[in-house]
Write the C-alpha coordinates for this entry.
Amino acid sequence: MRRRILALVAATVLLVLVAFAIPLAVLIRTVAVDTALSTATAQAQSLTPLVATADRSTMQPTVELADDRNSGDVSVVLADGTVLGAPAPRSSLVELGLRGVSASTEAPGGREMVFSVQGAAAGNSVIRVFVPDAELTRGVTRSWLLLGGLSIVLLAGGLLLADRLARSLVDATTDLSGVSEQLARGDLAARADASAPAELGVVARALNGLAGRISELLREERENVADLAHRVRTPLTALRLDAEALRDPDESARISSGVDGVQRAVTGAIEQARRRGGEGRAADAAAVVRERVEFWAVLAEDTDRSVTLELAPGPLPVACSPGDLEACVDALLGNVFAHTPDGTPFGVWLAPRSAGGARLVVADRGPGLPPGADPTSRGVSGGGSTGLGLDIARRTADSAGGTLTLGSPPGGGLQVELELAAPPP
Protein backbone atom coordinates (compact mmCIF):
# COMPACT_ATOMS: atom_id res chain seq x y z
CA MET A 1 0.00 0.00 0.00
CA ARG A 2 2.79 2.38 0.88
CA ARG A 3 4.67 1.73 -2.37
CA ARG A 4 1.50 2.19 -4.38
CA ILE A 5 0.80 5.57 -2.78
CA LEU A 6 4.39 6.69 -3.43
CA ALA A 7 4.20 5.50 -7.06
CA LEU A 8 0.92 7.34 -7.58
CA VAL A 9 2.24 10.58 -6.11
CA ALA A 10 5.50 10.31 -8.07
CA ALA A 11 3.63 9.78 -11.34
CA THR A 12 1.30 12.71 -10.63
CA VAL A 13 4.13 15.09 -9.70
CA LEU A 14 6.15 14.04 -12.75
CA LEU A 15 3.21 14.66 -15.07
CA VAL A 16 2.68 18.12 -13.59
CA LEU A 17 6.38 18.93 -13.82
CA VAL A 18 6.58 17.74 -17.42
CA ALA A 19 3.49 19.76 -18.32
CA PHE A 20 4.98 22.96 -16.89
CA ALA A 21 8.76 22.51 -16.89
CA ILE A 22 9.26 21.70 -20.60
CA PRO A 23 7.23 24.68 -21.92
CA LEU A 24 8.96 26.89 -19.34
CA ALA A 25 12.39 25.66 -20.48
CA VAL A 26 11.50 26.43 -24.10
CA LEU A 27 10.22 29.86 -23.06
CA ILE A 28 13.48 30.59 -21.22
CA ARG A 29 15.52 29.81 -24.34
CA THR A 30 13.20 31.88 -26.54
CA VAL A 31 13.42 34.86 -24.19
CA ALA A 32 17.21 34.60 -24.11
CA VAL A 33 17.40 34.57 -27.94
CA ASP A 34 14.96 37.45 -28.25
CA THR A 35 16.90 39.47 -25.68
CA ALA A 36 20.21 38.96 -27.51
CA LEU A 37 18.68 39.84 -30.89
CA SER A 38 16.91 42.89 -29.45
CA THR A 39 20.19 44.12 -28.00
CA ALA A 40 21.93 43.66 -31.35
CA THR A 41 19.10 45.45 -33.18
CA ALA A 42 19.25 48.38 -30.76
CA GLN A 43 23.02 48.60 -31.28
CA ALA A 44 22.61 48.67 -35.03
CA GLN A 45 19.85 51.27 -34.88
CA SER A 46 22.04 53.53 -32.74
CA LEU A 47 24.65 53.54 -35.53
CA THR A 48 22.20 54.18 -38.38
CA PRO A 49 22.19 58.05 -38.17
CA LEU A 50 25.97 58.11 -38.02
CA VAL A 51 26.41 55.83 -41.03
CA ALA A 52 23.87 57.82 -43.03
CA THR A 53 25.44 61.25 -42.45
CA ALA A 54 29.07 61.04 -41.34
CA ASP A 55 32.19 60.47 -43.39
CA ARG A 56 34.51 57.49 -43.13
CA SER A 57 37.01 59.10 -40.72
CA THR A 58 34.24 60.03 -38.31
CA MET A 59 32.50 56.65 -38.47
CA GLN A 60 35.55 54.46 -37.94
CA PRO A 61 36.32 55.15 -34.23
CA THR A 62 32.62 55.02 -33.32
CA VAL A 63 32.11 51.67 -35.07
CA GLU A 64 35.25 50.22 -33.52
CA LEU A 65 34.08 51.33 -30.07
CA ALA A 66 30.69 49.74 -30.65
CA ASP A 67 32.40 46.51 -31.73
CA ASP A 68 34.55 46.47 -28.58
CA ARG A 69 31.55 46.96 -26.29
CA ASN A 70 29.41 44.35 -28.02
CA SER A 71 29.85 40.66 -27.31
CA GLY A 72 29.33 39.96 -31.02
CA ASP A 73 30.91 41.42 -34.13
CA VAL A 74 29.77 44.87 -35.34
CA SER A 75 30.78 45.91 -38.83
CA VAL A 76 29.87 48.64 -41.33
CA VAL A 77 30.23 47.82 -45.02
CA LEU A 78 30.31 50.92 -47.20
CA ALA A 79 29.08 51.12 -50.77
CA ASP A 80 32.60 50.85 -52.15
CA GLY A 81 33.23 47.62 -50.18
CA THR A 82 35.23 49.17 -47.33
CA VAL A 83 34.67 47.39 -43.98
CA LEU A 84 34.79 49.36 -40.74
CA GLY A 85 34.88 47.66 -37.32
CA ALA A 86 35.11 43.87 -37.10
CA PRO A 87 36.20 42.02 -40.25
CA ALA A 88 33.18 40.74 -42.14
CA PRO A 89 32.90 38.52 -45.20
CA ARG A 90 30.97 39.83 -48.18
CA SER A 91 28.21 37.31 -47.78
CA SER A 92 25.02 37.02 -49.78
CA LEU A 93 23.18 38.69 -46.92
CA VAL A 94 25.58 41.68 -47.07
CA GLU A 95 25.03 41.89 -50.84
CA LEU A 96 21.31 41.93 -50.19
CA GLY A 97 21.74 44.75 -47.68
CA LEU A 98 23.74 46.83 -50.20
CA ARG A 99 20.71 46.57 -52.44
CA GLY A 100 18.54 48.13 -49.75
CA VAL A 101 17.09 45.06 -47.99
CA SER A 102 17.54 44.40 -44.24
CA ALA A 103 17.46 40.74 -43.19
CA SER A 104 18.85 38.17 -40.79
CA THR A 105 19.74 34.49 -41.05
CA GLU A 106 21.40 31.61 -39.26
CA ALA A 107 25.13 31.45 -39.77
CA PRO A 108 27.84 29.04 -38.65
CA GLY A 109 28.45 29.73 -34.95
CA GLY A 110 25.61 32.22 -34.46
CA ARG A 111 23.18 34.55 -36.20
CA GLU A 112 23.97 37.20 -38.83
CA MET A 113 21.90 40.39 -39.02
CA VAL A 114 22.27 43.15 -41.66
CA PHE A 115 20.59 46.54 -41.67
CA SER A 116 20.57 48.55 -44.89
CA VAL A 117 21.32 52.29 -44.53
CA GLN A 118 20.11 54.36 -47.47
CA GLY A 119 20.43 58.05 -48.28
CA ALA A 120 24.22 58.43 -48.18
CA ALA A 121 25.83 60.34 -51.05
CA ALA A 122 28.17 57.44 -51.89
CA GLY A 123 25.31 54.90 -52.02
CA ASN A 124 23.78 52.29 -49.71
CA SER A 125 25.77 51.07 -46.69
CA VAL A 126 25.23 48.03 -44.48
CA ILE A 127 25.46 47.64 -40.70
CA ARG A 128 26.29 44.00 -39.98
CA VAL A 129 25.93 42.47 -36.50
CA PHE A 130 26.95 38.87 -35.81
CA VAL A 131 25.52 37.42 -32.58
CA PRO A 132 27.38 34.19 -31.49
CA ASP A 133 25.56 31.18 -30.09
CA ALA A 134 27.04 31.82 -26.64
CA GLU A 135 25.28 35.18 -26.56
CA LEU A 136 22.03 33.72 -27.84
CA THR A 137 21.98 31.15 -25.00
CA ARG A 138 23.48 33.31 -22.26
CA GLY A 139 21.97 32.28 -18.89
CA VAL A 140 19.88 29.51 -20.45
CA THR A 141 21.95 26.64 -18.98
CA ARG A 142 21.90 28.20 -15.51
CA SER A 143 18.15 28.76 -15.71
CA TRP A 144 17.61 25.20 -16.87
CA LEU A 145 19.71 23.87 -13.99
CA LEU A 146 17.70 25.97 -11.53
CA LEU A 147 14.48 24.73 -13.10
CA GLY A 148 15.68 21.13 -12.92
CA GLY A 149 16.77 21.55 -9.30
CA LEU A 150 13.43 23.08 -8.39
CA SER A 151 11.65 20.18 -10.11
CA ILE A 152 13.73 17.67 -8.14
CA VAL A 153 13.01 19.52 -4.89
CA LEU A 154 9.27 19.54 -5.66
CA LEU A 155 9.35 15.84 -6.52
CA ALA A 156 11.31 14.98 -3.37
CA GLY A 157 9.00 17.12 -1.25
CA GLY A 158 5.93 15.48 -2.75
CA LEU A 159 7.38 12.02 -2.15
CA LEU A 160 8.34 12.93 1.42
CA LEU A 161 4.83 14.16 2.22
CA ALA A 162 3.33 11.13 0.50
CA ASP A 163 5.65 8.83 2.44
CA ARG A 164 4.61 10.37 5.75
CA LEU A 165 0.95 10.09 4.82
CA ALA A 166 1.41 6.52 3.57
CA ARG A 167 3.39 5.61 6.69
CA SER A 168 0.64 6.92 8.97
CA LEU A 169 -2.01 5.01 7.01
CA VAL A 170 0.02 1.81 6.86
CA ASP A 171 0.97 2.00 10.55
CA ALA A 172 -2.66 2.59 11.52
CA THR A 173 -3.80 -0.29 9.32
CA THR A 174 -1.10 -2.58 10.70
CA ASP A 175 -2.06 -1.60 14.23
CA LEU A 176 -5.71 -2.43 13.52
CA SER A 177 -4.69 -5.77 12.06
CA GLY A 178 -2.46 -6.59 15.02
CA VAL A 179 -5.12 -5.65 17.56
CA SER A 180 -7.69 -7.75 15.68
CA GLU A 181 -5.34 -10.74 15.81
CA GLN A 182 -4.77 -10.21 19.54
CA LEU A 183 -8.50 -10.07 20.16
CA ALA A 184 -8.94 -13.22 18.07
CA ARG A 185 -6.36 -14.96 20.28
CA GLY A 186 -8.37 -13.93 23.35
CA ASP A 187 -6.32 -10.96 24.55
CA LEU A 188 -9.19 -8.59 25.28
CA ALA A 189 -6.84 -6.04 26.85
CA ALA A 190 -5.53 -5.13 23.38
CA ARG A 191 -6.59 -1.71 22.14
CA ALA A 192 -6.10 0.08 18.82
CA ASP A 193 -4.76 3.62 18.45
CA ALA A 194 -7.85 5.83 18.36
CA SER A 195 -5.79 8.79 17.07
CA ALA A 196 -5.33 7.09 13.67
CA PRO A 197 -6.08 9.37 10.69
CA ALA A 198 -9.56 9.88 9.28
CA GLU A 199 -11.79 6.82 8.90
CA LEU A 200 -9.14 4.50 10.38
CA GLY A 201 -9.55 6.32 13.69
CA VAL A 202 -13.30 5.69 13.56
CA VAL A 203 -12.66 1.98 12.95
CA ALA A 204 -10.12 1.89 15.79
CA ARG A 205 -12.58 3.47 18.24
CA ALA A 206 -15.31 1.06 17.15
CA LEU A 207 -12.94 -1.91 17.59
CA ASN A 208 -11.94 -0.68 21.05
CA GLY A 209 -15.60 -0.33 21.98
CA LEU A 210 -16.29 -3.85 20.79
CA ALA A 211 -13.35 -5.24 22.79
CA GLY A 212 -14.51 -3.36 25.88
CA ARG A 213 -18.05 -4.67 25.53
CA ILE A 214 -16.83 -8.26 25.09
CA SER A 215 -14.62 -7.89 28.19
CA GLU A 216 -17.56 -6.53 30.15
CA LEU A 217 -19.82 -9.40 29.12
CA LEU A 218 -17.18 -12.01 29.95
CA ARG A 219 -16.53 -10.36 33.31
CA GLU A 220 -20.22 -10.47 34.11
CA GLU A 221 -20.33 -14.13 33.08
CA ARG A 222 -17.37 -15.01 35.30
CA GLU A 223 -18.85 -13.19 38.26
CA ASN A 224 -22.18 -14.93 37.78
CA VAL A 225 -20.44 -18.31 37.68
CA ALA A 226 -18.36 -17.44 40.72
CA ASP A 227 -21.45 -16.27 42.59
CA LEU A 228 -23.31 -19.44 41.67
CA ALA A 229 -20.34 -21.55 42.78
CA HIS A 230 -20.19 -19.65 46.06
CA ARG A 231 -23.86 -20.36 46.69
CA VAL A 232 -23.59 -24.05 45.75
CA ARG A 233 -20.46 -24.89 47.74
CA THR A 234 -21.95 -24.26 51.14
CA PRO A 235 -24.86 -26.72 50.71
CA LEU A 236 -22.45 -29.18 49.09
CA THR A 237 -20.25 -29.02 52.16
CA ALA A 238 -23.29 -29.63 54.31
CA LEU A 239 -24.29 -32.62 52.17
CA ARG A 240 -20.80 -34.08 52.46
CA LEU A 241 -20.87 -33.75 56.23
CA ASP A 242 -24.31 -35.41 56.30
CA ALA A 243 -23.03 -38.21 54.07
CA GLU A 244 -20.05 -38.81 56.31
CA ALA A 245 -22.39 -38.97 59.31
CA LEU A 246 -24.42 -41.86 57.84
CA ARG A 247 -24.01 -45.20 59.63
CA ASP A 248 -24.12 -47.27 56.43
CA PRO A 249 -20.62 -47.06 54.84
CA ASP A 250 -21.88 -47.99 51.40
CA GLU A 251 -24.62 -45.38 51.48
CA SER A 252 -22.15 -42.81 52.79
CA ALA A 253 -19.69 -43.60 49.99
CA ARG A 254 -22.43 -43.41 47.36
CA ILE A 255 -23.71 -40.03 48.49
CA SER A 256 -20.16 -38.69 48.96
CA SER A 257 -19.33 -39.76 45.42
CA GLY A 258 -22.34 -37.84 44.11
CA VAL A 259 -21.35 -34.77 46.10
CA ASP A 260 -17.80 -35.04 44.74
CA GLY A 261 -19.17 -35.16 41.18
CA VAL A 262 -21.18 -32.00 41.72
CA GLN A 263 -18.16 -30.37 43.37
CA ARG A 264 -16.00 -31.32 40.41
CA ALA A 265 -18.55 -29.88 37.96
CA VAL A 266 -18.75 -26.61 39.91
CA THR A 267 -14.97 -26.27 40.08
CA GLY A 268 -14.67 -27.05 36.37
CA ALA A 269 -17.27 -24.38 35.56
CA ILE A 270 -15.31 -21.82 37.57
CA GLU A 271 -12.07 -22.77 35.84
CA GLN A 272 -13.60 -22.63 32.38
CA ALA A 273 -15.19 -19.24 33.02
CA ARG A 274 -11.94 -17.83 34.34
CA ARG A 275 -9.93 -19.08 31.37
CA ARG A 276 -12.31 -17.51 28.89
CA GLY A 277 -11.48 -14.12 30.32
CA GLY A 278 -8.78 -13.39 27.78
CA GLU A 279 -6.87 -10.88 29.90
CA GLY A 280 -3.28 -9.98 29.23
CA ARG A 281 -0.47 -12.05 30.75
CA ALA A 282 0.07 -9.71 33.70
CA ALA A 283 -1.86 -9.06 36.90
CA ASP A 284 -1.48 -7.12 40.13
CA ALA A 285 -1.30 -9.91 42.69
CA ALA A 286 -1.96 -7.52 45.58
CA ALA A 287 -5.24 -6.27 44.11
CA VAL A 288 -6.45 -9.70 42.95
CA VAL A 289 -5.67 -11.53 46.20
CA ARG A 290 -7.20 -8.78 48.32
CA GLU A 291 -10.41 -8.80 46.24
CA ARG A 292 -10.79 -12.61 46.40
CA VAL A 293 -10.07 -12.76 50.14
CA GLU A 294 -12.77 -10.15 50.73
CA PHE A 295 -15.11 -12.28 48.62
CA TRP A 296 -14.46 -15.42 50.71
CA ALA A 297 -14.44 -13.55 54.02
CA VAL A 298 -18.25 -13.55 54.02
CA LEU A 299 -18.36 -17.36 54.00
CA ALA A 300 -15.60 -17.48 56.62
CA GLU A 301 -17.76 -15.38 58.94
CA ASP A 302 -20.74 -17.67 58.29
CA THR A 303 -18.71 -20.77 59.20
CA ASP A 304 -17.04 -19.23 62.29
CA ARG A 305 -13.54 -19.25 60.82
CA SER A 306 -10.95 -16.73 61.95
CA VAL A 307 -8.81 -15.32 59.15
CA THR A 308 -5.22 -14.05 59.41
CA LEU A 309 -4.25 -11.68 56.61
CA GLU A 310 -0.86 -10.20 55.77
CA LEU A 311 -1.12 -8.71 52.30
CA ALA A 312 1.51 -6.45 50.77
CA PRO A 313 0.07 -3.10 49.63
CA GLY A 314 1.27 -3.59 46.05
CA PRO A 315 1.26 -3.25 43.21
CA LEU A 316 2.87 -6.68 42.76
CA PRO A 317 2.87 -7.53 39.03
CA VAL A 318 3.04 -11.25 38.20
CA ALA A 319 3.24 -13.12 34.88
CA CYS A 320 -0.29 -14.52 34.70
CA SER A 321 -3.67 -13.13 33.73
CA PRO A 322 -5.98 -11.69 36.39
CA GLY A 323 -8.55 -14.39 35.60
CA ASP A 324 -6.05 -17.22 36.14
CA LEU A 325 -4.86 -15.71 39.41
CA GLU A 326 -8.44 -15.26 40.62
CA ALA A 327 -9.20 -18.90 39.77
CA CYS A 328 -6.07 -19.99 41.63
CA VAL A 329 -6.93 -18.04 44.80
CA ASP A 330 -10.54 -19.28 44.64
CA ALA A 331 -9.33 -22.86 44.32
CA LEU A 332 -6.99 -22.58 47.32
CA LEU A 333 -9.54 -20.88 49.55
CA GLY A 334 -12.30 -23.18 48.31
CA ASN A 335 -10.24 -26.18 49.39
CA VAL A 336 -9.98 -24.71 52.89
CA PHE A 337 -13.74 -24.50 53.19
CA ALA A 338 -14.36 -27.84 51.48
CA HIS A 339 -11.85 -30.00 53.41
CA THR A 340 -11.68 -28.50 56.89
CA PRO A 341 -14.40 -28.44 59.57
CA ASP A 342 -16.32 -25.27 60.32
CA GLY A 343 -14.46 -23.08 62.76
CA THR A 344 -11.02 -24.05 61.37
CA PRO A 345 -8.84 -20.93 61.18
CA PHE A 346 -6.75 -20.15 58.14
CA GLY A 347 -4.41 -17.45 56.95
CA VAL A 348 -3.33 -15.78 53.71
CA TRP A 349 0.07 -14.13 53.27
CA LEU A 350 1.24 -12.20 50.19
CA ALA A 351 4.70 -10.65 49.91
CA PRO A 352 7.01 -9.49 47.10
CA ARG A 353 9.92 -11.67 45.99
CA SER A 354 13.44 -10.31 45.81
CA ALA A 355 13.72 -11.37 42.16
CA GLY A 356 10.38 -9.80 41.24
CA GLY A 357 6.91 -11.23 41.33
CA ALA A 358 5.09 -12.37 44.46
CA ARG A 359 4.94 -15.16 47.03
CA LEU A 360 1.47 -16.32 48.09
CA VAL A 361 0.91 -18.60 51.09
CA VAL A 362 -2.44 -20.12 52.15
CA ALA A 363 -2.36 -22.16 55.36
CA ASP A 364 -5.03 -23.74 57.55
CA ARG A 365 -5.24 -25.69 60.82
CA GLY A 366 -7.21 -28.55 59.28
CA PRO A 367 -6.38 -32.27 59.10
CA GLY A 368 -3.70 -31.76 56.44
CA LEU A 369 -2.92 -34.11 53.54
CA PRO A 370 -3.63 -37.84 53.58
CA PRO A 371 -0.47 -39.98 53.73
CA GLY A 372 0.99 -40.75 50.26
CA ALA A 373 -1.49 -38.54 48.38
CA ASP A 374 -0.52 -36.37 45.40
CA PRO A 375 -3.22 -33.71 45.39
CA THR A 376 -1.55 -31.67 42.63
CA SER A 377 -2.47 -34.31 40.01
CA ARG A 378 -5.72 -33.54 38.25
CA GLY A 379 -8.57 -35.71 39.52
CA VAL A 380 -6.32 -37.63 41.90
CA SER A 381 -6.45 -36.92 45.61
CA GLY A 382 -7.82 -38.27 48.82
CA GLY A 383 -10.01 -37.36 51.69
CA GLY A 384 -12.99 -36.58 49.49
CA SER A 385 -11.07 -34.13 47.28
CA THR A 386 -11.76 -33.83 43.57
CA GLY A 387 -8.11 -33.11 42.82
CA LEU A 388 -9.00 -30.01 40.77
CA GLY A 389 -8.24 -27.18 43.19
CA LEU A 390 -4.50 -27.71 43.68
CA ASP A 391 -4.16 -28.68 40.02
CA ILE A 392 -5.48 -25.21 39.07
CA ALA A 393 -2.96 -23.64 41.45
CA ARG A 394 -0.11 -25.77 40.05
CA ARG A 395 -0.90 -24.85 36.44
CA THR A 396 -1.18 -21.18 37.39
CA ALA A 397 2.27 -21.33 38.98
CA ASP A 398 3.70 -23.11 35.92
CA SER A 399 2.24 -20.56 33.52
CA ALA A 400 3.66 -17.72 35.62
CA GLY A 401 7.14 -19.24 35.67
CA GLY A 402 6.89 -20.18 39.34
CA THR A 403 6.44 -23.19 41.59
CA LEU A 404 3.88 -24.73 43.95
CA THR A 405 5.04 -26.20 47.26
CA LEU A 406 2.94 -28.11 49.81
CA GLY A 407 3.85 -28.39 53.43
CA SER A 408 2.60 -28.47 56.97
CA PRO A 409 2.84 -25.37 59.17
CA PRO A 410 3.84 -25.62 62.86
CA GLY A 411 0.87 -27.01 64.74
CA GLY A 412 -0.43 -29.11 61.82
CA GLY A 413 -2.64 -28.45 58.87
CA LEU A 414 -1.78 -27.69 55.28
CA GLN A 415 0.33 -24.89 53.85
CA VAL A 416 0.32 -24.12 50.13
CA GLU A 417 3.12 -21.83 48.95
CA LEU A 418 2.89 -20.32 45.47
CA GLU A 419 5.85 -18.60 43.80
CA LEU A 420 4.86 -16.32 40.90
CA ALA A 421 7.46 -14.70 38.64
CA ALA A 422 7.33 -11.10 37.45
CA PRO A 423 6.04 -10.41 33.93
CA PRO A 424 8.65 -9.83 31.21
CA PRO A 425 9.58 -6.20 30.58
Q: What stands out?
A: Residues 377-387 have pLDDT under 50 and may be disordered.
